[in-house]
Amino acid sequence: MRQSLFFLLAAVAGSSALTIPHVHPEANLLPRQSCENSATSRSCWGNYSIDTNYYDETPDTGKTVEYWLSVEEGSCAPDGYTRTCMTFNGTVPGPTLIADWGDNLVIHVTNNMQTNGTSIHWHGLRQLGTTEYDGVPGVSQCPIAPGDTMTYKFRVTQYGSTWYHSHFSLQYAEGLFGGMILNGPATADYDEDLGTLFLQDWSHIEAFTLWNTAKLGAPPTLDTGLINGTNTFDCSGSTDSNCVGGGKKFETVFESGKKYRFRVINIAIEGVFQFSIDGHTLTVIGTDLVPIVPYTTDSVQIAIGQRYDIIVEANAASGDYWLRGGWVTTCATNSNPDGMTGIVRYDASSTSDPTSTSTVTASTSCSDEPYASLVPHLSLDVGNMPTITSEDLSFTFDSYFKWTINSSSLLLDWAEPTLMKVFNGDSIFPTEYNVVAVQPSSSTATEWAVLVIQDTTGLGLNHPIHLHGHDFWVLAQTTGMFDGTASSFNTANPPRRDVATLPGNGYLALAFQLDNPGAWLVHCHIAWHASQGLSLEFVESESSISVDSADQTVFTNTCNTWNSYIPTEVWPQDDSGI
Ligand code: C2O
Fold first, then answer.
1. How far, rounded to the nearest angstrom, does the alpha carbon of residue 155 sit from its chain's CA centroid?
2. Which ligand 1 atom is at minimum distance from the Cα of 124?
3. What are phi and psi of 191, to 5 degrees?
4. Is 505 left (phi over 0), alpha (psi -120 to 50) or beta?
5. What is its EC number (predicted)?
């Protein structure tokens, strides 16, 4: 009902001659008609639309979009404090990669660092049929050695907002990340796309240095936060020669009456944000790469790796307003929790600091947005769930603090990726690879695999859990003990996304369709926790994993170059590898 009403309104609102009233697919009265995407018909997408089941169907654009990324080390001062960073093409964030739904992406990654391997992951992309380009060292590839180039090739079968980042130890926390905008339809109209809005915690000491203490278990307090890679920091009275000053706040300009789309992305090391803009209401239209039925709110709570597509209408009195990252102080400590701000101006010539105040009630929880708010527009229920994989989360101390999944902490050997073993026909993997084999029991009907992670640590910490290679359906997300049965599962169009928070002293139950043979990591996206082994991997339908010979050659060449680099390696692996 809600969807039909939405389309009726969308059709009425459409004024362009090209706008043809949209037919709800279930109504099935007319053949599908073409409808162009515009500011007043965002649900349209040519012969496709917001109603297309994008798990089954992808537009054939016949277009290939090519990018070149250079992974570099150098100094940076995003907030006016100079330190060493790792960057894509010299900037933090790296360049935004833009493609249309259905395009082919070809991305050449050259490792121009002197003493580090690297490997780049395209967060949230399904990599349908291309598990070898998922970018996880020790799982889908060997690291790219210094001086080497690897070309990633895959099809864009989804649309919306995401990011790419190094998956090699803590590198993304040093600046190796950038945005991905995949153009497609949307569930509400807007005038302008303001692109990605990164929320990030930031340290003046490099993450690899902090690791020396962080690995012992107590996360260090980070110095500040950045919005889209920038902020100010108070260097007045500082005798520290690295505190050079000159940082800037992120700023954007609103024109009264217009609607703007922001693609809010949390890329923190450990923080949770409660994003808001003083004086403005947020309309949320997407969770990760899944369009949702729009809902309005005054703030959005976002965990690491998650994305929220948000529309903001410029309907406040003309003036300057704070845009607030909204550090949630109960989830992680930071020395500058209130300073993670940017500015929205109605007058581009204004240079004054806003005097606006927030009416948002500060969050004290570290959980996701309310489960009931996150209703996928493309309504899909979970069907056949023959097996439930239940894993206990705990911890141990073995030279450093390690998280364990069913008593085993992830530890990968970068030079022996899971896929290499798959290509060799092995079905036995090292225990510390934490491999769970899954495959459909029949070839006829669609089946879902179910993963339940139960927190048994007693620590009460929340963990943002990310799955590669799939969107998942969130069957349950609650405190307490899982009873081993499906009785607590909601299978009727539950929230669907690629990162969801495991509640402390509780459990998270996820379902994913067994439709993408490959080696797929599941991990906590808190950078310290991933390094401390909070991860497992699914090897899905191993006998059906197929990689053509050109891609096989890319894989082998990358490994050969890495293997010849190993004897000269400066920094031996000192964590799980991811
Ligand atoms: Cu953002 Cu395993 O990834």
1. 18
2. 1
3. -90, -50
4. left
5. 1.10.3.2
